[in-house]
Amino acid sequence: MEQRDETILKGAQRTKFDFDKNFDHSNIPLKDEKFPVIIIGSSMVGMSLGVLLGYYGVKSISFDRHPSTAIHPRAALFLLRTIEIFRQLGLADFMEQESVLNFDLDAGMLVIESLVGGKVLMRIQESDPAKTAEVTPAKRLWLTQNMFEPLLRTEAHRFGAQQKFSTNVVHYEEQADGVVVIVQDLETKKYFKYKTDYLVATDGGRSATRKFEGIEWRGPGIQSNNISVNFRADLTPYLGSRAVHGVTYITNPKISAGFRLEGAGKAGFMIVNSTKDRQEFEPDSVTADEAKQYFYDASGIKAEIDIQVDSVSYWTAAAFNADHYSSKRGRVFLAGDAAHVVPPTGGMGGNTGIQDTYNLAWKLAYVVQGKAAPNLLKTYSEERKPTVECVMQQAYSRLVNRVSGDKSVPHEKELPDIICEIGYRYVNGAFIRSTAPVASEPWEDPHAPTVTPGSRIPHVMLTDHANGDAQVSTLDLVKQNFILFTADPSSPWLAAVSKQNIKIDAYGISKDSQPLADTADKFAKTLKLDSKEAILVRPDGHIAWRGSSEDGQEQSTVASVLQEIFWG
User: Fold this and answer.
1) Euclidean distance between CA atoms 73 and 269, whole angstroms
2) In the chain, pLDDT over 90 holds for what percent of residues?
3) What is the DSSP letter of 460?
């Protein structure tokens, strides 16, 4: 079965592309403007990387062959870890305002026989707001990608990240001191040459970059070739309470499908996995009339309604994970679908890609700014690949259980959503293992955090006495720098980090500390800190090290830890 990504009815768009290894760019002048990072692709993952790089002070430019950001309503369930990231960037509140206009954020998803009047077969991913609030300040949000990407594009400019649309990267050459990148303006047909320190490819599941680098990927493989029918129709008279659900899966004798609605049911798209007559869909094989019939079969609406089919997209549900996420010479990286494709069940795909960029961006920034050696970048693959493998297998299990129906197919037991979303931890990578035991499993229960190196720093709500007693999460303290936490406001660790050659934010938190105080008396208990201990946290919120006071050796201990992480 061949992997696909085509859009038909409004003019076929064929997107297959390979780099020409023999491309002659000797007569193309090198652009004077230098970008430390160039990004191939400017969709959700590529733009997220540009925003994060700008947040860390690194200039970037992305090139995308498409004329603009997303124009069709693709699925966009933003899971908790992703919202924590955008909370750090100051974007989460606006995203929530947009989301609540259309959806009940805690309604979850339904598996039903038909959209209208069909029997409910299963309720999934429903949220208990109080339980979720114990472990994160974030909320799951629904936003269509054609709403989110223009927002992110605006923020990218605010952070100094540039995007060039209708521009295709046609060739690159990795050199000892950087990467030469050749792009073509698809409107003028002119070529331009850039030199960058690092190239990051977010060029999708059929990544030309991955192929050019000879990187293989493995996994359960291609599962089905499906269609998405983008439509406009007023379904509000029929939906009732089902309008608030972000996704509804449909299974009945005529069709296996799903709906993702927006505008309270006035538009959206329908995914079709199979019908009673078709198990897969060849490009150009579905007419507008057939698409409308699929809509009626899945919706259960008996009356003829005014439905406008805007397009039919052909795409593949697959599960693959690349053998590694960087080139052999270490200046070209893969992120998002270029590195891994994840079945859409559970909404983990785009979220996993954004979390790739969160891991990679601060490391690129530290290397580009001379704070760390290039070896730090090797930990990107080392950390992300095993984590994504687990995510991919969990999404695959959800595909088997929710869509295919054949549970005899080998698959892993589903983990709770909260564990998949914010419970992942890195087993090997840019952290110090020797001072505390590191669990071998790549997951933990956020309600019982291990607080060990490689794990996400737990969420604890603190009181900010300097800001009208506002409530601030420990996760809100994660910004551009490393952070040191202690449970003693007079700890020698605080003085030790102030004497390092890079800026480290430091907090000694107790019930009576100022300006941040642990008025609920949960900080030390949740972080498992005694008065002599300290925890060092990375700019992506994962623990880099933890240890105890060493009789005046705190300054040299911190220096040694940083040396090993940045230069080891």
Assistant:
1) 7
2) 71
3) -
CA dihedral 328, 329, 335, 341 (to 10 degrees): -10
Mapping DSSP to helix (H, G, I), strand (E, B) and coil, where does residue 223 land? strand
Nearest Cα residue to 500 out of 434, 431, 554: 554
Residue 557 C-beta-side C-alpha neighbours within 13 Å: 23
- SS3 (DSSP) at 230: strand
DSSP structure class, residue 207: -
Residue type for position 194 = Y
Query: Residues 335, 337, 343, 344: is their CA dihedral positive or negative?
Result: positive
Q: 448 burial class (0-12, 13-18, 19+ CB within 10 angstroms)?
A: exposed
pLDDT in tens, 168-223: 999 999 999 999 999 999 999 999 999 999 999 999 999 999 999 999 999 999 88
AA letter at 81: R
Closest CA to 312 of 337, 341, 283: 283
CB-neighbour burial class of residue 349 (10 A; exposed 0-12, middle 13-18, buried 19+):
buried
Q: How far apart are CA 429 and CA 2, in angstroms?
A: 35
Q: The tokens of 138 are what?
A: 């974030």
290-293 contact pairs (CB < 8 A, 24+): 291/9, 291/227, 291/229, 291/231
Q: Tokens 């197919």 — which residue?
A: 409
Lowest mean pLDDT among 76-85, 100-109, 270-279, 353-362: 100-109
Residue 34: strand, helix, or coil:
coil
Compute the distance between CA of residue 341 and CA of residue 344 in angstroms, rounded to an integer. Answer: 9
Nearest Cα neighbor of 143 from 113, 183, 101, 182 is: 101
- Average pLDDT of the chain is 90
Contact present, 64 and 156 (Cβ < 8 Å): no
